[in-house]
């Protein structure tokens, strides 16, 4: 489908690809924040995940090993953060920033011997029958497996958060850790779990970049996407569905800017570069304009350390 | 440890004292630097990024190695990589100077002021700063005429394209990059008047994911040869995977592109570094501004892909020869901007000053230049 040289199908197909690292990292950040922990270390966890996954793939030649190692590495980074903020009750903002700075340096150091190694990307998976549907087929059903997996993870996170008892406990810990504690739940333990799962997802998001798109490792590969993921969670008013929508919107508009430039549309490239940020903020703010709901969605204990009493 | 520090402090003190004595002595003397011939010199290098496997700093380090190889035991070299532009740079440069370096290459634009500042304190040390415009009697500058290589690469692209659409992934709309796009376009159209160049600015030097998406977009829109003025090998890799052609920048990236990489426009610093080090050894160095192209060995093409047919190869080599001996100017008139205005008439050539300020696209660039 083409309008004046602009191919909507390739654009939308690329949108899913560009949104995927943000979806994964954003969902991870969502889990942590929903239990009341703000982890600004996403960028660092993504980088360490990206480089660890890349190294594992180069060494074992197995993509699955690469993704698994990236999740472990992300979780390991997150456990450092959880130790500082949950066990030692250090300031979450400062610890998160430190984690990012640490991750930037560590990933550069780890990746040095592997920098510039050329690897094969992940092949696209054509889902039988469905991928033959005109228009929708190429957009939705000719993606790489990680795109499908990230959507499945998103669905799982939504289901878990709003339709399971464990999800209810997770939300309770974020809203009122004291009540959760009084009911006999281990607040710190639950926060550890959420932060570690978040780290694993951030690591996977990083590995999506080093193993799938653009499948290479160079220092600083993530280039700020961790920060975008953190911002997405806030602008999506802590709703996982909106985090995903925001991530795809951001990816799609970034690519749209390139499409328009390539077609010679006379809009300054600087304006097109800032468009994803503006559009994502505007759309998510409009979606979350109900202030009462916004207040209800924001975890009440966010950034507050928990002291068990009684 | 403590001894090392003490030694360094003493060395700094003595160097400082000598420097002070020297500067008072030469205050009234000539405006050139007074160098004595030496048997052995220490040469320092400051790199802005990690050396890595390809790219700007990697090429400088290749130059350092080439110089070391050619001058043998007459030089000892030392380098510091990943030095941020700014206060850190000044500290690193000063450390190299007080460590006894006779010649220091500072290889990034942002080192300009730190270099000048440190050079004042060490009038006995020779400094060479890449891509800057501030000089002193012991500070020279050097810059590559990259556009000569871009022009030749454009010729290859113009010959190899079947769709007549070429793609250019660019970093920031500054004269250096605009010049590269224009030279590439003029090269392509010198052999194929139907060729046009589409440009996508990603507004980042370094974001491999964006660079790849931009390259994908250009190829989706019909470009069958893409090139880039950004760091990393993302564009070359993207083209190779779709069996399209790419022209790499900074370093030879055929490792990623195979025969899809038609060629690469590369910086080569070995000749220049060797020459400058030799001058310092002989005591004949003077501060100059060198803007060197293919003739001086600073810029060249990497080996051409085996997909490039022989007649194209010969044509490009002939043009290369003509650029070297000055018969061919990539920006020789007529130079017509996209809006139709004539920037250089037949028989004229754009001046260096005009090249340094270039802020328009030439005919054949399909995109529109973002305005400030």
Instruction: Classify the fold: give the CATH topology of the largest domain in chain B.
Output: Rossmann fold
Give the N-to-C terminal Cα separation of chain A: 65 Å
Question: Helicity of chain A, in percent?
Answer: over 70%
Mean pLDDT of chain A: 93
- The order of strands across the largest sheet of chain B is 2-1-3-4-5-11
Strand content of chain A: under 5%
Question: Helices, strands, pairings?
Answer:
The complex is a heterodimer of chains A (310) and B (372).
Chain A (H helix, E strand, L loop, with lengths): L1 E2 L2 E2 H27 L7 H19 L2 H25 L4 H20 L24 H5 L4 H19 L1 H11 L1 H6 L4 H26 L12 H11 L4 H23 L6 H19 L3 H7 L13
Antiparallel strand pairs in A: 1-2
Helix pairs in contact in A: 1-6, 1-9, 1-10, 1-11, 2-3, 2-4, 2-9, 2-10, 3-4, 3-9, 6-7, 10-11, 11-12
Chain B lengths: L1 H25 L14 E6 L9 H16 L3 E6 L6 H12 L4 E4 L5 H10 L4 E5 L8 E6 L1 H15 L4 E6 L4 H17 L4 E6 L6 H13 L4 E5 L4 H8 L3 E6 L3 H4 L3 E7 L2 H13 L6 E4 L6 E3 L8 H15 L10 E2 L5 E3 L7 H5 L16
Parallel strand pairs in B: 1-2, 1-3, 3-4, 4-5, 5-11, 6-7, 6-8, 8-9, 9-10
Antiparallel strand pairs in B: 10-12, 13-14
Helix pairs in contact in B: 2-10, 3-4, 5-6, 5-11, 7-8
